[in-house]
Amino acid sequence: MHINKIVFLSFLFFSNLSYSDNNNQQLLIKDPKKVETFLVKDINDVEKTISNAENKVLLLNFWATWCAPCIKEIPELIELKEKFKNNIEVYFFSVDFNVKKTVPKFLKKNKISGLSVLNDEKLKVSDKFEIKVMPTTVVINKNFEEVAQVKGYVDWLSPEYINFIKKLL
User: Fold this and answer.
1) Torsion angle, CA of 56/62/65/70, rounded to 10 degrees?
2) CA pair distance 42, 31, nearest whole angstrom
3) Catalytic residue among 50, 67, 103, 148
4) CA distances (Å), 142 to each of 113, 127, 139, in order?
5) Which tens digits make up the pLDDT trace of 90-113?
6) Per the residue annotation, which of 50, 70, 90, 138 is the catalytic one?
7) Right CATH number for 2-168 from 3.30.390.30, 3.55.40.20, 3.30.420.40, 3.40.30.10?
8) Which of 23, 5, 36 lies closest to 128 in space, CA to CA?
């Protein structure tokens, strides 16, 4: 398992797959893929079930503390969640090594509070959704179907993305 993790992170590092470019837009999924309920742990080892029980649009954001576009995107995703209040949920999946130490230091240094970070240092969830680029946000509709993947940084507060979310509600 460690070899898979090393290969994945080496691939990210050497291919410079953390990026921010206007061409990094969303990839709509022609035939939405049903998502199975799954368990994750936060950085304090508290289990969380991700399911359609919430009846919300879900955004699964995969990021790392070393990824500048990821860091730029976090406040916008938090603001997007506030804008849509009870209609969307944003989950932040950290793929950092040693998430339990790295992420709290990062959050404190960057004065980010109230962010619930889920631990994906073993890349189980990343693999499930075939994540290869940081940041990537998987969009899941209220029917618990994956309808899009947004690869790279995008302006989540732009009219284009606000309208995209509204159409899913």
Assistant:
1) -80
2) 30
3) 67
4) 27, 22, 10
5) 999 999 999 999 999 999 999 988
6) 70
7) 3.40.30.10
8) 36
Query: How would you write 122-145 as a 3-class SS string?
Result: CCHHHHHCCCCCECEEEEECCCCE
- Please name every residue paired with 153 in a beta bridge, in sequence order, or none if there are none: 20
Q: Quick check: is 114 catalytic?
A: no
Instruction: List all residues 6 or more positions away from 8 whose beta carbon is below 8 Å from its beta carbon.
Output: 123, 126
Q: Is 67 among the catalytic positions?
A: yes
The rounded distance, in Å, linking the Cα atoms of 87 and 103 is 27
Judge whether residue 29 has pLDDT over 90: no
């916008």: which residue's tokens? 76
Strand partners, 94: 63, 119
